[in-house]
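Sanity check

After download, print the first record. It should look like this:
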Amino acid sequence: MFTAPRHDLKPIPGTTPLTPQAAVLPPLIYYLALILLPPFPNLPKQPLIAIVRSILAAIAGTLFFRLPLVYHVSFSVGLTYQLALVGLYGGCRVLDAFFISPFLFKHIPRRVKYHHQPRIETPGVWRSRALSNSYFNLHFLQPKEAAITEIATTDKGLPESWKDRASWALELELAMRGAGFTWTSADVRHTKKTWTPTARDRAHSIIVHVLPVLGTCFMIIRYIYLNDLSSSSGHVASFDDLSFLKQIILTAALGGFLMTAFALGHSTFAIALAPLKPHPLSYFPPLYTTRIWELTSVRSFWSYGWHRLFSRLFLVYGVWPGEWVERKLTGKRPDQPADVGKVLGGFISSAFVHSFAAYTVVGGVLRDALGEAEFFTGCGMAVVIEEVVERLVLSQRRKSKKTSGKDGSSALDRWYDGIVGRIWWVSVLLYNGRHFARGWVKAGLVREMAGQ
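Expected structure tokens:
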């Protein structure tokens, strides 16, 4: 569409290059339907509006789902992969907003406003806390503003005038993580104590830390591709032709590249939209909420160490169905936790989404797209295993009579727990991540990431 097609792109057979009209129509129709989503208080009965809204939503959802099945981005493997994610995410989001949430839960998203109040900290202590446990340390920022307490309040009403509806719909459509609305599960700050980053802080993070890590990962990917995967004849070797060590190194480099690329995009957009403050579109909550070297389990990595851009999709189409299945099979009450179903449901839905995206860049060959499914399913099983092991170990420690305190909980931790936990989650991600990397080599994504 914009440049020469890639000769190594393997789209689904029968798909055609993406056109501007096909790219614009789904989000545009979705936006028009969102304008009609809040009820009209001055109109007691709204059958015509409901019909028009439902028709627009159905058309938008169909066009979103249709995108990766009918089109591909001829000049980029990565963008074709992203097109599949956008199509699935957009279609599922439309179904959620117009049919699942309103009809099953009687819920229409409401705005959430964030108020920041100055927070008094002991001199010298607030900065150490910022550096030890905050968004700023995670992104290598150097906060210059005062410590604050963040308070969230939900709007009681919904937009009524056409102007307010247009603004509300735009904000909701652009809030991919649902940030700024009650229609979200993406913001996992776990504390109201925080600091507000400045554009200068974010620029410092990009220049001093994000770009060097991104560049290092790029050089590793490029080196392995040029020296071990490509040849002068144009033949690309299989991922399995690499030694086990190089498989691990390439997998780690791909993961680091993705993580820093997400951070770069997040901070760049935050800087660009900073002048809009205090408008909600300028609000960018943490992308990652814990420093990667502080994570001690697979579950903590996916909960705090990775982005949650698709969390609403996984919640509605994975977590909730998984919990429902577990309760049906075990007879648990609705108020009882269903952690196994929650974990497996979330990871299985993620496995499907990412495997479908891979399917669109491996020529529609299903077996070549299963690496993502193996990776996420393996991570889900690892979370279940580590939870079972943790409970067994803690139970044994309680019985050992080596604890102190009334409930014996103060001495349950051991000095080596964190070391074992870190070795465990890193090993799981790198070993299972090879399934991901194998598919990306086969699809040509690694070649494109290597600048070839």
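If your output differs, re-run the checksum step. Summary of this record's structure: The longest strand covers residues 147-154.
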